Structures are given as structure tokens and as C-alpha cells.
Amino acid sequence: MLLDVKALAEKENLNYEEMADAMEYLYKLSYHPVAVKFFWDQEEFDNFKADKVPGPKMTVCQIALASRMNDYIVKATEDNLMCGNAKTCFGMREPSDPEVDEHLKYTIDWDMAKECLLAKSRLPEGMKGFVTAPLGKGAFDPDVVFLVVNALQAYHILNDYIGGKRVPALEFKHTINSAVCGGMAYCYNEQKPNMNTMCAGSYTSGKTETGEVNVYIPGKHIDALVRQLIRRVDKFGGPSMVGSPGQEFPGLHVCKACPMVRFKDAE
Question: Phi/psi at 126 (nearest 5 deg)?
Fold first, then answer.
């Protein structure tokens, strides 16, 4: 194994580069875990140094894309956002009747569309801006760690959260849209992990066309999750929980040619 798991298991403190390396290598991630930080202090936000800012207006999904695929630290404000839903979820504007109208395609019923809009998680008002960065760059202590993963990667990540934080079960919040912005807001507000599907916007604008799901981990909890992953691999030899523990690839298809998966002709 290219990663020295034994050495990581023996370390008292892990830095963000080590956490990201462990997650990317052991979970076989296709993208960087994205650290997200929200700013309510204007001076703090203005003084933060980033690699990039959006050129044209973008969605939150596209801004995060630059961090998970292109390794950039990106800062953005309300003026950079194309997506009105994100402005609402990020506490930059109040929900409105015109926004309800935009949700009618999901519910057909206007009153139900309004309920769906108001049910979304919203960050506290007054946010000045936000930053996304690859977790491994260690640019800041993240408020949320955002991952785009396949279903079995999500399974392992969330199980390691359960083991690391010693919580027996997890519940998630799915809304009719605002997957990424609303998912981040829920994770931040509740300080709980979240998982949801892509929404109509993130599916097309966030480069997520191969069936991935979104996973969000509170930034304060990422250390416990990664330590649990490292402890498991140190004990069993590999990260997979499918079948016999300790296989190297999460989600190894152990049922192929299984004698228990058979069908016979109906009488």
C-alpha cells in the first residue's frame, strides 16, 4: 500500500493534507474533498487570499467544482452567484413568491411549492462570502467538508463517521432542489452529516453526470472520521467493509458467481 497507514495511526495529530490523502487513497475518490468556509466578518473575508474568483456569475456547484477537480482555492460573494436558490439557502435573500413560482415544476401545486421552499435549510443572514478549497491544501479550518462520491464510497464514509463519532444511525435531509447549497447549510446549521442526490442544477452544472451523490461532513468532525478510517485499515489491512473486512477496494463486488444468487424456472 502506497500510504503509510501504520505511521498515520500512530500520529497524535493529523493535518489536513494527511486527512485528504487518506480519504482520497483509501476510499479511491475521484475528486478532492472540498473544504468550505463561510464568512460573516467583512474584513476577514476581504483579507483572505484565494487563487481564483469567478469570472462570470456561477452556481455554488460550479465554484466547488474548481476546488474538487482543479485544485483551486476560490472565494465568492453574492454578486458572483447565478443561482437564486443558493442566495436563499446562504441567507443572502429572503424567500419570495417569484421564487415559489420557480418551484412549481416540481410540485404543480403553488402552496406545496411554497412549503418546499420554506423547508430548505438557510444559513444565518448577513454572510459576506464563502471560500472553497481542496481539503488537502489546509487553507483554513473548514465549516463543512463537501464530497462528490459514488454510492459505495458514501457508504464507507458515513459508516466511518458512525464509528468515529459513536452515533448509531444517521438521518439526512433531501429537498426538491438546492442540493449542494442547501446540503451545506443543513450540515453547518445542524452540525450533522448529510447526504443527498444531485438536484436539477448540480446535475448539469456541477459535472456530476455519472450517478454520484453529495456527502457533507461538519468540519469539526472530519478528524474523527478519518481517524476511524485509518484505525480500520490498520486493523484489517484495507478499507472495504463489503464481505470480509480488509479488502483494498471499497465496494469490491463479492457477489459475482455467488452460489446463493441463483434463479430457477418457475413451475
Answer: 95, 10
